[in-house]
Q: What sequence folds into this?
């Protein structure tokens, strides 16, 4: 089956991270939507230039941590107090201080899973194929290249976008097309 | 000879010499990825052969133990815990430096961590794997180890959650999982870099699979930065809790020599102490043979030696407190354990070796000359590792072998199976480490690049100010 071409991106490489952040901000001020930057390490001011809302990862982590906390307390209380009570020297069956270590460990464990899977989910990973990988030049994005992608509808003329990117200091510009994610 | 401007001491807070300044992103790639693409040399294969042979000893020791039962170990009555618990605590402790370097130094924004964190985290993972083997084998029937976890079984029984040994199970498995997640999250951008600079299709596919399709998107970094920081924030109390819980295995009992409230902090400090020593032991040869001197500078080594000095002093304080409390309580069993049995008893040799390695050795790092001398710090780090092993031996064996009733005293000595398993875990650790050095960048490349950019900005600004 032939893949349907749904969208295309203009990819532009910039010389330094600072130029890239600057160009991103200016393009966004011009009204371009859904842009993305690509760099081997986080750009300072990159999130602000893209106008991203605060990350949801901390919230997911908190939910994970609270789930772990409740699970651990409920599990220990039910198992050792009601379902399988062990009387050892008459010590209290419901002894919260003894529940502390496992409650702490499970809170941390669930929070860590929340962070990890939250990160993957919010970033839509794993995603082994993405149209931008079609561009051979784009391979520098993970090592020493600083790229900006500007989505634009198929069939429209990309040259206007390309000209604007070049005016902002892009050293090379390519166009990739592919299925929308 | 007056000091010239060029040799004037630098502001200690300025991260000036953390990355050799002549590097840019491209040359950093070449330097840091080089050892992955290069064919391993003769030295690597020789070491690999050595660690594989040691790993063979582990196979022999474990097979024999499984076939005959743990009676083949030197453990006896009254010393029911011996090599297995000593090595367990020792390995877990070594693992802690990795998390500390990665997590605590990240939270404190200590820039010098970036060059060594990957290395140290790998060490954590492998050390915890080795540690886990010991309690597992000590259960006698490791194929029933899942009984320790709360699962709905037909036996209708649940684990006893008031037992420190069940706390241990949760602490260690959480620690291993979170360390692995932390390590892998830190590795993703570098796996993408490996994918994109690979030369063959096979390499590209394999690294591509592990990189999960990472493309350094601004939206990804946006979530990534906070996720990494949060994982670090979680790991920090986790380290403290894990070794605290390990120390509870001893401290909640009533045995003289174990029943001490100083144990949790003293165990945590000891763990950091031995962990940092292990980092030095491994990093000194590795940075030479991998050509990483530009990113793991002498300054890094000196800083680590300072941590060793500080934690060594805390450990010495722990010893002092143990002895002081024994004297202050005037409890005859405690007095016997600390002032007679440990210092002059059958294991006095190990005790004095412990004092020499853990109390005296770190003090050489008061002198800058020792802190910066490669041979001295390497030998000292090995001494610290030996000393910390002796400490665990002393705590466990002296307390168990001679406790309250002289009629139930006994002497412990390890058998060849004990030694096989111990040396075998060293082999397992070494094997995993060498594979890590071969297939994954030993230094967190993306973080070093980010740091390099920051340093450039800082340099630029300070020149502008003068």
A:
């Amino acid at each position: 089956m032939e893949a349907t071409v749904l969208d295309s991106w203009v990819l532009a490489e910039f010389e330094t991270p600072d130029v890239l952040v600057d160009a991103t901000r200016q393009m966004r001020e011009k009204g371009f939507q859904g842009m993305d930057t690509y760099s081997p390490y986080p750009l300072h001011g990159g999130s602000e230039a893209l106008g991203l809302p605060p990350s949801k990862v901390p919230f997911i982590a908190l939910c994970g941590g609270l789930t772990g906390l409740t699970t651990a307390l409920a599990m220990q209380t039910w198992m050792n107090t009601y379902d399988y009570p062990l009387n050892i020297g008459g010590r209290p069956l419901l002894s919260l201080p003894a529940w502390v270590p496992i409650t702490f460990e499970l809170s941390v464990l669930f929070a860590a899973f929340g962070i990890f899977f939250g990160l993957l989910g919010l970033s839509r990973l794993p995603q082994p194929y993405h149209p931008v990988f079609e561009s051979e030049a784009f391979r520098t994005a993970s090592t020493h290249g600083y790229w900006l992608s500007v989505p634009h509808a198929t069939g429209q003329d990309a040259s206007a976008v390309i000209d604007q990117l070049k005016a902002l200091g892009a050293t090379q510009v390519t166009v990739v097309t592919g299925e929308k994610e | 000879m007056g000091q010239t401007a060029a040799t004037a001491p630098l502001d200690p807070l300025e991260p000036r010499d953390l990355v050799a300044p002549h590097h840019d992103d491209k040359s950093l790639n070449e330097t840091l990825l080089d050892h992955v693409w290069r064919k391993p040399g003769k030295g690597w294969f020789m070491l690999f052969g050595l660690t594989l042979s040691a790993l063979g000893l582990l196979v022999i020791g474990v097979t024999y133990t499984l076939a005959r039962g743990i009676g083949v170990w030197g453990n006896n009555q009254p010393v029911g815990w011996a090599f297995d618990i000593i090595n367990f605590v020792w390995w877990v402790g070594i693992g802690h430096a990795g998390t500390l370097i990665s997590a605590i130094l990240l939270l404190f924004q200590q820039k010098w961590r970036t060059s060594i964190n990957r290395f140290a985290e790998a060490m954590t993972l492998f050390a915890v794997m080795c540690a886990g083997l010991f309690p597992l084998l000590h259960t006698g029937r490791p194929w029933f180890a899942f009984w320790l976890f709360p699962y709905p079984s037909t036996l209708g029984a649940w684990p006893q959650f008031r037992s420190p040994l069940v706390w241990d199970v949760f602490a260690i498995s959480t620690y291993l999982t979170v360390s692995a997640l932390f390590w892998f999250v830190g590795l993703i951008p570098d796996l993408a870099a490996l994918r994109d600079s690979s030369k063959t299709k096979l390499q590209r596919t394999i690294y591509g699979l592990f990189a999960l399709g990472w493309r350094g998107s601004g939206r990804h970094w946006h979530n990534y930065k906070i996720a990494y920081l949060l994982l670090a924030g979680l790991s920090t109390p986790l380290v403290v809790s894990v070794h605290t819980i390990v120390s509870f295995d001893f401290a909640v009992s009533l045995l003289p020599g174990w029943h001490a409230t100083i144990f949790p902090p003293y165990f945590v400090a000891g763990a950091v102490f031995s962990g940092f020593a292990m980092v030095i032991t491994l990093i000194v040869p590795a940075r030479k043979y991998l050509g990483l001197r530009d990113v793991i500078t002498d300054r890094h080594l000196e800083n680590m030696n300072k941590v060793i000095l500080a934690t060594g002093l805390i450990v010495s304080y722990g010893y002092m407190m143990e002895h002081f409390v024994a004297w202050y309580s005037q409890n005859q069993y405690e007095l016997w354990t600390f002032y007679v049995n440990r210092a002059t008893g059958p294991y006095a040799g190990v005790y004095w070796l412990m004092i020499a390695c853990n109390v005296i050795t770190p003090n050489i790092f008061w002198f800058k000359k020792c802190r910066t001398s490669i041979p001295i710090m390497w030998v000292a780090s090995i001494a610290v590792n030996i000393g910390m092993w002796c400490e665990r031996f002393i705590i466990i064996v002296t307390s168990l072998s001679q406790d309250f009733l002289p009629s139930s005293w006994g002497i412990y000595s390890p058998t060849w199976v004990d030694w096989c398993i111990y040396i075998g875990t060293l082999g397992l650790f070494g094997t995993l480490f060498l594979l890590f050095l071969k297939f994954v960048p030993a230094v967190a490349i993306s973080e070093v690049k980010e740091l390099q950019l920051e340093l450039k900005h800082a340099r630029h600004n300070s020149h502008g100010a003068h």
Notes: Residues 1-5 of chain A have pLDDT under 50 and may be disordered. Helices of chain A lie at 17-29, 46-50, 57-83, 96-122, 159-167. Chain A touches chain B through 63 residues (CB under 8 Å).
